[in-house]
């Protein structure tokens, strides 16, 4: 198996984890919080998808999926915003309000498709290419991909945990 195939498999697995964390949930479940400072399922999945969209578009030299088709408005956010959630306050977390799970899944699927397309062309030289010189040492495409994988797995796990809390609470 080639490195790019391993990366493609990893991002396909993330896609399935995202679907499992939000599939079948209504709008109320998506914006439920275990406490007022906690992240919602909607925010967690939006954020992980925005990070993937932003970072992969940057290293691939392409436009973000988020920039087309009115995505900010579909999440209840101001038109034209390119925010991806880093450092959000509880009020900003609460502002991310997709109409339903299908919106989260559709956006993530489009981003995953774009990621997989990029990864289909990745080789060792691409992984070693410096994509951000503002860090010491400079960040390569391979390091950036590893960072995206870590972030997305962490947040999709958090979304699944919050879903479990919500569902347990609903049964009580």
Structural class: mainly alpha
**Element-level helix/strand string:** HHHHHHHEEH
Number of strands: 2
Overall residue-averaged pLDDT value: 95
**CATH H-level name... which superfamily?**
dinb family like domain
Number of domains: 1
Amino-to-carboxy terminus distance: 47 Å
The CATH level-2 architecture is identified as Up-down Bundle
Fraction of residues in β-strands: under 5%
Major sheet details: 2 strands, antiparallel
In short:
This protein is mostly helical.
What does the model show?
- The protein has one domain: dinb family like domain (Four Helix Bundle (Hemerythrin (Met), subunit A), Up-down Bundle), CATH 1.20.120.
- The chain has eight helices and two strands, in the order αααααααββα.
- It has helices at residues 3-22, 27-30, 41-60, 71-74, 90-95, 101-119, 124-128, 141-171, and strands at residues 130-132, 139-140.
- The longest helix is centred in the last third of the chain and has 31 residues, at 141-171.
- Helix 3 (41-60) packs antiparallel against helix 8 (141-171).
Supply the key terms:
172 residues, globular, mainly alpha, 63% helix, Four Helix Bundle (Hemerythrin (Met), subunit A), 3% strand, 2 strands, two-stranded antiparallel sheet
Q: What's the structural blueprint in terms of helices and strands?
A:
Elements: H1 3-22, H2 27-30, H3 41-60, H4 71-74, H5 90-95, H6 101-119, H7 124-128, E1 130-132, E2 139-140, H8 141-171
Helix pairs in contact: 1-6, 1-8, 3-6, 3-8
